[in-house]
Amino acid sequence: MRSIRYPKMTEYFLILFCLVIMLFLRATLPSSARPLMQISEAIDWSSARRPLGIEPCRTGNPIDDCWRCDPDWETNRKMLADCAVGFGRNAIGGRDGKLYVVKDSENDDLLNPVPGTLRYAVTQDEPLWIIFDHDMVIHLEEELLVKSYKTIDGRGFNVQISNGPCITLENVSNIIIHNIYIHDCIPAWKAMVGETESPQHSEEKSDGDGISIFGSRDVWIDHCTLANCHDGLIDAVYGSTAITISNNFMFHHNEAMLMGHNDDFLADKNMQVTIAFNFFGEGLVQRMPRCRHGYFHIVNNVYTEWEMYAIGGSANPTINSQGNVFIASDNNSTKEVTKREYVSENDDWKNWNWRSDGDVMLNGAFFTPSGRETPASYMRATSMVARPASHLTTTALSAGALHCMIGKQC
């Protein structure tokens, strides 16, 4: 691929940005001696420099600029439902329902959910916008099966789901998950819904994903922090589509995101996923994401020091990578951003439509493109307008769960 030369001043800022990111992560992320539970703050994408003449809360991130400047965000919580972008932009969650306040972080009961708990809220049939009344760490006994038209909104408090099974979206639609710290998720006996629509135990185990999206659509996951789960941090399979994964901070995990059930599951050809404004941090190995069949718009993310590869796939997915910053580690064997899974060199992977458009490659990172360069080839993998990657070095965008204080801009 033809290399892009930047003016010396821009190149200087890009190098400075790389150094600032590395120093910041090493100073703030936990060592093995510090428990993950201490990490719930958002991670700045850049240094504290802000352009002169621009309102401090305005960053150019269309999601955050839609709601974070409002000091009355707590009163106007449901305005968030109008702020999504990308393929999951139609996810309204519980916008048209009542507010439901979670007060009880204990007493998790799959068969008879206790009022006041998160499980009780997500299993109700009507739309609900679910909020919390204090800091809490929720240890689930079984996977949390969320019904359609629900928003889980952790703004205002430090809300964690950890050290147990975590969130499952199975054959549902219109889900928003916002401002939750999800970590150390483990497998457990899988929950199921029988003819009476009441949850039951099955004889299978859940995978131990942070968030598992199965046969679902119109899903938006925003400003969450995810780390150290047994399987994936966020997996979307079995015909799921119309998904946006945005503003999340992910770290300390092997297989971060799987998009697509398996190479033979052709229903995933209709999958469309937007992955935008995320920060892929320290200790991530691979699958950011790993894609099968469908259409994936990967836009304005920051990737740092992946240990195997950043973006991979099989079964001819279309991958449109735009305006991202890729910062490779010093390991010469992990400079390549991309990895393709195929049986032999005779496979037709060179025809898969994978492009890098306006990405910034630092410390030797490189992206191997393939397929056709025509705009029509990426039409179904285009969901929003990408900002120039260089803008990520001059604004203070943030990713992960936020410390939102009531009465102040978030």
UniProtKB/TrEMBL annotation:
<keyword id="KW-0456">Lyase</keyword>
<dbReference type="Pfam" id="PF00544">
    <property type="entry name" value="Pectate_lyase_4"/>
</dbReference>
<dbReference type="InterPro" id="IPR012334">
    <property type="entry name" value="Pectin_lyas_fold"/>
</dbReference>
<dbReference type="InterPro" id="IPR045032">
    <property type="entry name" value="PEL"/>
</dbReference>
<protein>
    <recommendedName>
        <fullName>Pectate lyase</fullName>
        <ecNumber>4.2.2.2</ecNumber>
    </recommendedName>
</protein>
<dbReference type="InterPro" id="IPR002022">
    <property type="entry name" value="Pec_lyase"/>
</dbReference>
<dbReference type="GO" id="GO:0046872">
    <property type="term" value="F:metal ion binding"/>
</dbReference>
<feature type="signal peptide">
    <location>
        <begin position="1"/>
        <end position="33"/>
    </location>
</feature>
<keyword id="KW-0106">Calcium</keyword>
<dbReference type="InterPro" id="IPR018082">
    <property type="entry name" value="AmbAllergen"/>
</dbReference>
<keyword id="KW-0479">Metal-binding</keyword>
<feature type="domain" description="Pectate lyase">
    <location>
        <begin position="135"/>
        <end position="332"/>
    </location>
</feature>
<dbReference type="GO" id="GO:0030570">
    <property type="term" value="F:pectate lyase activity"/>
</dbReference>
<keyword id="KW-0732">Signal</keyword>
<comment type="pathway">
    <text>Glycan metabolism; pectin degradation; 2-dehydro-3-deoxy-D-gluconate from pectin: step 2/5.</text>
</comment>
<keyword id="KW-0134">Cell wall</keyword>
<dbReference type="InterPro" id="IPR011050">
    <property type="entry name" value="Pectin_lyase_fold/virulence"/>
</dbReference>
<comment type="similarity">
    <text>Belongs to the polysaccharide lyase 1 family.</text>
</comment>
<keyword id="KW-0964">Secreted</keyword>
